[in-house]
Design goal:
about 325 residues, alpha/beta, D-Maltodextrin-Binding Protein, domain 2, nine-stranded mixed β-sheet, 11 helices, Bug_dom1, signal
Length: about 325
């Protein structure tokens, strides 16, 4: 064999090895623990969803799926960290509806939600509830509306930061009731709930994953659920539509993402693992206790998450622009 032919064979072999390497890596994936970044504080509703799903995915993938809380800037800090992470499948993002509001809320957003990530799938859509400190004066949702029209300017409304689900719900509540309240931002849903329970602030609208246990324990006063139908775990709680707040209709969807450029074979493995987690009986029962349910298999896909994110960005843009609420 000539030197030229030997060189050509060696070059072809090297090219084949390079082409084979990503496929081999995807086939072996995962070989180390996976980190799921939750861009909100520990103990909050999104953190609860993440830890339930991560536990089952750990068993399925044969590696630990660890939850890391990176709060701040309405979820954009943690999301930005994942957007800039190595696209090897070992750093993921579990985010909620805030992914779709960030492009309008933040004038200087460092990433494009539709371009910076490889969607894996939807997880769940969580209803929200309007709750208050347990000694708040209004006895029910209808008297709450009357109260807000008279004393809304003196009422404090807690939320988990600009862009959080509780912030978005508060915007809709004020719009639907035709009032302006004193908004009190917190560094996450958990500390906001702590101050509601402690009586430091008046109102909060947050996900059932963060309010159901407190409602059942009598630690907070509950007024309504923000979805068209009642929640099975809180059957006595009326819907916002029932009490005359037709414009207040919001559920908080959650999705799982990898950084853009992640090998499609790895994304497919993660999609399959996510789908297994969502049919796990423990996950289903815990979700039910918290007033939500896993999405269907057809929704726990990259295509479904992409479609949801795209449509929700367009849905929220005019609402946020009309409210005139922005962050730097």
């Amino acid at each position: 064999m000539s030197h030229i032919l030997k060189g050509l064979v060696a070059s072809l072999g090297a090219l084949a090895a390079v082409a084979f390497a990503p496929a081999a890596l995807a086939q072996d994936y995962p070989t180390q623990p996976i980190t799921v970044v939750v861009p909100f504080s520990a103990g909050g509703p999104t953190d609860t969803v993440a830890r339930l799903v991560a536990q089952v995915m750990s068993k399925d993938l044969g590696q630990q799926v660890l939850v890391q809380n990176v709060g701040g800037a309405g979820g954009t800090l943690g999301a930005g960290q994942v957007a800039n992470a190595k696209p090897d499948g070992y750093t993921l993002l579990l985010h909620h509806i805030g992914m779709s509001t960030a492009p309008t809320l933040y004038r200087n957003l460092a990433f494009d939600p539709l371009k910076a990530f490889a969607p894996i799938g939807l997880i769940t859509a969580v209803p929200m509830t309007i709750v208050a400190r347990k000694d708040f004066e209004p006895a029910d949702a209808k008297t709450l509306l009357t109260y807000l029209k008279e004393k809304g300017a003196d009422t404090t409304y807690a939320h988990a930061g600009i862009g959080s689900a509780s912030h978005l719900c508060g915007m809709l509540l004020q719009e639907a009731a035709g009032v302006q309240m004193i908004t009190v931002p917190y560094q996450g849903a958990a500390p906001a709930m702590t101050d509601i329970i402690g009586g430091q602030v008046d109102l909060l609208c947050d996900q059932t994953t963060n309010t159901t246990n407190q409602i059942k324990a009598g630690e907070v006063k509950a007024y309504a659920v923000t979805t068209p139908t009642r929640v099975a775990s809180l059957p006595d709680l009326p819907t916002t539509k029932e009490v005359g707040l037709d414009k207040l209709d919001i559920g908080v969807w959650h999705g799982l993402y990898a950084p853009a450029g992640t090998d499609p074979a790895i994304v497919a493995k993660l999609e399959a693992s996510l789908q297994k987690a969502l049919v796990d009986e423990t996950v289903k029962s815990r979700f039910a206790e918290l007033g939500t349910a896993p999405v269907t298999a057809s929704e726990a896909t990259p295509a479904a998450l992409t479609a949801e994110l795209t449509s929700q960005i367009e849905l929220w843009r005019p609402i946020i622009q009309a409210a005139g609420t922005y962050a730097d």
